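Friendly challenge for the regulars: who can give me the structure tokens for this chain first? No prize, just bragging rights.
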Amino acid sequence: MSDDDTPVPDAAHAASLPHGLVQRHDGVFFDLSLAPAQLRAAVGQLFLSGQLLAGLDYPLFLLTLFHAPVPRAAPKGDALLRVAARVAPFPAARRALYKQVKIRGDVAEFYFEALAADADGQVPARREFDELVADLWGKGVLYGLDSVAVRAILDTGKAERITVARALPPQPGRDAQLVEVSQGIHRDDAPRERPDGRLDLLSFKNRFPQVKKHARLLRLLPGAPGQPGYDLAGNVLPPPAPLELDLAAAAGVGTVAEHFSDGDFIVATLDGYVNVDEQGKISVENKIVSREGVSSRTTGNLKLRAAYEEYGEVQEQRQLDGSDITIHGDVYGHLHSHGGLILLHRNLVGGTAFNEHGDVRIEGVASGSVVQSLSGEVHLRRAESCVIAGTRVVIDHASNCEIIADDVVIELAEGCAVAARTIKVGSAGPRKQVEMLLFPLVPDLSSLEQKIADSLARGAQYLQMRDKRQQEIDAIAQLPEVRNYLTLAGQLRRGELQLQPAQQLQYDKLAARIAPVLKEVARLRVEVKQSEILQAQMLALVEQLRQERQAMAGQSRCTLGLVDGETTVRSLVVPRGPAKVYDRPPKEIKALLRSATPATQLVFADSTGTLDWTYAPPPGG
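First reply, four minutes later:
Bragging rights claimed.
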């Protein structure tokens, strides 16, 4: 302090000070029963009356006037706080020493120049800190005096311009935020351990962890208010309000916002994977959603048991094994799905899309890649230099591709080799030096034709057997006794003849003699009937086999809407059986379609025209 802290005999009496200031023999005190605003008014009244507080404890003075809590508790007895040694006059002559104060926005500056002599030739001893406080108060600077800096320059006596007071900017509080509370949502990027105990450095241990139902995922940490600031005039500068969060708005599918005794939480309502969208909404679903891409840096190789949606790229040599795979970025790696749909919104470049039990759909370009579905359809907009296989393949524009399927539909095909039972191409032609080859797959009917031949032969055998037995019956009927008996039996049956007792006796003897012969005739007639039935069955089987052969042959078709350049169509015989013609490795598909090894039959070879061809089996059988 610049002045002595001891009380003086001529100090002002308590009754002469503004309400809130108390002068005692041991100093000047603030009455803490008053609010800070009332104390500031008392100090201002004192300073405007031409007085000052000598021996001022400025940090305590500032703290009490601006930073004390409001409202205050009722004081117990005398609640007084000593802030200065005494009240002293502040003459106008001394006040003239502080004219160099300049207030610029949030700062007040003062030029501590050398003191000049007055009219009597007397040089003031020095400027005083307590006087500067009172002078600045009168000029509107109530807050923020830098007591340390001012006292230091006063002690050195240097001539220098410094900032003597600064406003206190408000301190922002803490915005509300969501804090993770579940260890289950943390990833483990350690290398995955293989069954043999070795580490797979290309795969992470737990890139997409699962959470259980009722697990607490996030806790809402409420916002905390900031601290107010003060401008130089002592006006309160309120802090910005902290941002609040709507917990319910952050809870997505599979989660719910719940209140507990220890706070507000987002809780999982089902078992699944945690996904956070671009707006920060958290969800728990059976599908995994990733936005970082598949690479050695982000995820490594993935082997998943859930549907997967990726918004980034799948980089070269990365392997993604799962089901129901959706990729929004480009794919350069290898996708293997065990079911569902493989959907690529962009391009497949130099990679693989393989689906065991589902469709493959690529909305961008497939280039230099393998696209294969063992039990599903393949839909492509544009394919270049690809190997493509599936139950059904539909392509808008294919160039220099090898394609094999049961059913192929292509709008524009250039320089491709296509094999399918049913081929429909809008426009076909070569591409540069690569020829356009079409192979409608025709069934191997040899086994059916063999069955037809065998059935016809057996029918002929049954016919021959019938004729032979009929000849035996006719021979027996020509025997004299048999002929006589049959004649008499017919006349008796028709009532044309009546036998006398003696004749009846002779007739009965005749019937007894030829009874074995008649029994043989009955047996032969049964065999004749059986032969006729078996022959009819063989003829019906032959007709059924012929219809089956015709139906199988009719499944092989090739339709070309426009031939634009050299195009060759050759039928390719494929064996019957459960094996799928397109269930082959890519190298075998290329070898099959680009080599001349398979036995084929020319159907069409021209550079112009159209074609609507249906396979007709060779006549015969």
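The chain has ten helices and 37 strands. The two ends are 128 Å apart (CA to CA). Your move, everyone else.
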